[in-house]
Design brief:
single chain; 305 residues; mainly alpha; flat
């Protein structure tokens, strides 16, 4: 290792940082070292980065149109040098549909996370800090949502809202926030009576300022881990809605809907349903591995580094 690299490393790992920026960069460096030490977590990160690349550059990477097929010459062709993953019953290239379907998958997980995570964070921190009847009411509402299986509750909301990818995202987000509220409440209960929060309160900060500026940031690391681990479940729920015809509608290349259209040919043309199923498996595994790595890296008790 060069002298410059050693100096930079010592600067990051010093126990007496000279500025807030140095302290933050040092914490980020230590967190990255913990994460990178977990090879499975790195594999999960690479899988998710691959999903993002596919989604962003889908028009450049897809060899064929995901919507237009050749019924006369390319219907239900097995994997070969021309169509690497075969074709479906409409003569469409499955690889191209999977690449474009990564956009829908990424759209679902990002939008659900943007909607559900802040909602759960707000409900949990308010309930934990306020206590009393506010806590009781918010947590009983949370318990009602947790009492139903997520897929069943999502089916009910989509049935009420109507089929479509937008309504599916809303339904999944509505059913996904309760676990985040539970985590945020538990974190809030551990810090609301700490000296740090008491000092802020004595300085005249309002309850809303304490919750928004001082308690919520302390809950974010735990929430990030839980959201990442939940991504696999979100993907499976979206695929389940698509499989039942309540998610993305034809001809959109949604992976669950692709499995549904291929189930009629599962015995003879197995690749029609197997390829999107394998894509769901790989992406779900990637999110699970990434979440495990983030949990270990962001837990200060998990490493002595």
């Amino acid at each position: 290792m060069s002298e410059t690299a050693m100096t930079r490393r010592e600067w990051l790992l010093t126990d007496r940082p000279q500025s807030r920026l140095q302290a933050r960069l040092g914490r980020a460096y230590v967190t990255w070292r913990r994460f990178a030490a977990n090879r499975l977590a790195v594999i999960g990160m690479l899988i998710i980065l691959g999903l993002i690349v596919l989604a962003v550059f889908a028009p450049l990477l897809a060899p064929y149109s995901p919507y237009v097929g050749d019924l006369a010459k390319a219907r239900l062709l097995p994997p070969d040098a021309v169509h690497w993953l075969g074709t479906d019953d409409q003569g469409r290239d499955i690889l191209s549909r999977l690449i474009y379907g990564s956009r829908l998958t990424l759209q679902v997980v990002v939008l659900v996370a943007i909607i559900a995570a802040p909602l759960g964070l707000l409900v949990g921190t308010v309930a934990g800090y306020a206590g009393g009847w506010v806590d009781a009411v918010l947590m009983r509402i949370t318990d009602i949502f947790l009492a139903f299986p997520k897929l069943v509750l999502a089916l009910a909301f989509v049935a009420a809202l109507g089929p479509g990818i937008g309504n599916a995202i809303i339904a999944i987000a509505i059913t996904s926030w309760p676990p985040y509220a539970r985590i945020a409440r538990a974190e809030t209960l551990t810090v609301r009576n700490s000296d740090y929060i008491s000092a802020v309160r004595l300085m005249g900060a309002s309850p809303w300022r304490i919750v928004l500026r001082h308690i919520m940031p302390l809950c974010i690391s735990s929430l990030i881990v839980r959201v990442t681990l939940d991504m696999a479940g979100i993907i499976l729920t979206a695929a389940g809605l698509g499989f039942l015809g309540l998610g993305a509608q034809p001809p959109l290349p949604e992976w669950g809907a692709m499995i549904a259209s291929g189930r009629r040919f599962i015995l003879d043309q197995w690749w029609v349903a197997a390829m999107p199923g394998f894509a769901i498996l790989v992406v779900s595994l990637g999110f699970n591995l990434l979440g495990d790595g983030l949990r270990d890296a962001l837990d200060p008790r998990g490493s002595g580094q």
